[in-house]
Amino acid sequence: MDKDFKVDKEELKKRLTPLQYHVTQEQGTEEAFSGCYNETFNEGLYVCVVCEQHLFSSDTKYDSQCGWPAFNDVLDEGKVKLRPDNKGAKPRSEVLCSKCGAHLGHVIGDGPPPTMKRFCINSASLNFLPKDAKA
């Protein structure tokens, strides 16, 4: 994680919803098919709900039918950190924001070409910036 970025847990508890806090800070998971971005396919960027780091592009989002937003790649390899996670039925890695350490979801090696990766990400860990939004 970015050693210069500090997460104030008390400030996060005030700023995030209980579900966003549980997912990002306590490695929680939202219920399948419940997230606001599961069926969103508008053009834009998906950013970390904690630190606003740009993580995923709508260009790599696809409908995996898994119940969570799925991407076949990240904007840049340095935007996330992967940590082995052997708790699931399939081999997978936990996906963390490289800037603030927020838990985002998991990546599994059953995605579409060319990467063959499925970044299965909780909507609660993301904000969406539409392509045509003014900065």
From TrEMBL:
It holds the Pfam family SelR. It catalyses: L-methionyl-[protein] + [thioredoxin]-disulfide + H2O = L-methionyl-(R)-S-oxide-[protein] + [thioredoxin]-dithiol. It is an enzyme of class 1 (oxidoreductase). Its EC number is 1.8.4.12. GO terms for cellular component: cytoplasm. The keyword Transferase does not apply. Its cofactor is Zn(2+). Residues 9-131 form the MsrB domain. GO terms for molecular function: metal ion binding; peptide-methionine (R)-S-oxide reductase activity. Binds 1 zinc ion per subunit. InterPro entries: Met_Sox_Rdtase_MsrB, Met_Sox_Rdtase_MsrB_dom, Mss4-like_sf. GO terms for biological process: protein repair; response to oxidative stress. The keyword Ubl conjugation does not apply. PANTHER family: METHIONINE SULFOXIDE REDUCTASE, METHIONINE-R-SULFOXIDE REDUCTASE B1. Methionine-sulfoxide reductase that specifically reduces methionine (R)-sulfoxide back to methionine. While in many cases methionine oxidation is the result of random oxidation following oxidative stress, methionine oxidation is also a post-translational modification that takes place on specific residues. NCBIfam families: peptide-methionine (R)-S-oxide reductase MsrB. Belongs to the MsrB Met sulfoxide reductase family. This is Peptide-methionine (R)-S-oxide reductase. It comes from Phyllotreta striolata (Striped flea beetle).
